Amino acid sequence: MTDRYETFAARIDERFGEQMARVPSSCGELTFVVDKEDLIEVATALRNEGEFGFEMLMDVCGVDYLNYGSDEWTTSSATGTGFSRGVEREPVILDEADEFDPQRFAVVYHLLSLQHNLRLRLRVYAGSSNPPIVKSVVDIWNGANWFEREVFDLFGILFQGHPDLRRILTDYGFIGHPFRKDFPLIGNVEVSYDVEKGRVAYQPVSIEPRTLVPRVIRDDNRYSADLKDVQDG
């Protein structure tokens, strides 16, 4: 992190106090976590107050932290390429939990201040409610309109106060939200043209779910260093 950004981070700490908590970064990006109840107040101040001046919203994206940092298999050594056995996993059709982990779903805002040539990233956790809900920032940055629709479509996060919250990438009859970690990789339905009905028809997906894992290197004579040397002459 450059001295300029460290000075800027100190100004944010002084202005917002406990409303914004800094997140450690390994890539030199300035990131703060904001409580969803404080989002509108903080975002308005970041846009309007002259010492910040974040007049441009570059991007809004969703994140699903389900099973964050864990793997579907455990192995101490594996090849860099190639696959072998498949891990069988029960497909999840819809997430019907009454509540989520409070930090499972997050919305991330990428801000740009043209007048100060500074960038800032805000992260807001959606809380434990099902469906997850975050207040819309369309009234602050009008460009958030389609970004928030995309997050709703792919992650199922609702934006309170959005003027037209509809799906934007998937079909109107699509089931579920495909960027959630528990959404089955094969999907829920498959689409084909039905000649008899004369239209596109939906039916339950017919392939079996399978997760491929790297091939494990096993210790046997095929990998013996002496044998390899003999083959190489």
Describe the protein.
There is one protein chain. The strands form 4 sheets. A 5-stranded mixed β-sheet has the order 1-2-6-5-3, with helices on one face. Strands 4-11 form a two-stranded antiparallel sheet. A two-stranded parallel ribbon has the order 7-8. The protein is globular and about 60 Å long. By secondary structure, it is α+β, with helices and mostly antiparallel strands. The model is unreliable at 83-94 (pLDDT under 50). The termini are far apart. The protein has 4 helices and 11 strands, in the order αββαβββββαββββα.
Please sum up the structure shown.
With 233 residues, this protein is α+β, with helices and mostly antiparallel strands. The chain has four helices and eleven strands. The strands form four sheets. It has a five-stranded mixed β-sheet, covered by helices on one side. It has a two-stranded antiparallel sheet with strand order 4-11. The protein has a two-stranded parallel ribbon with strand order 7-8.
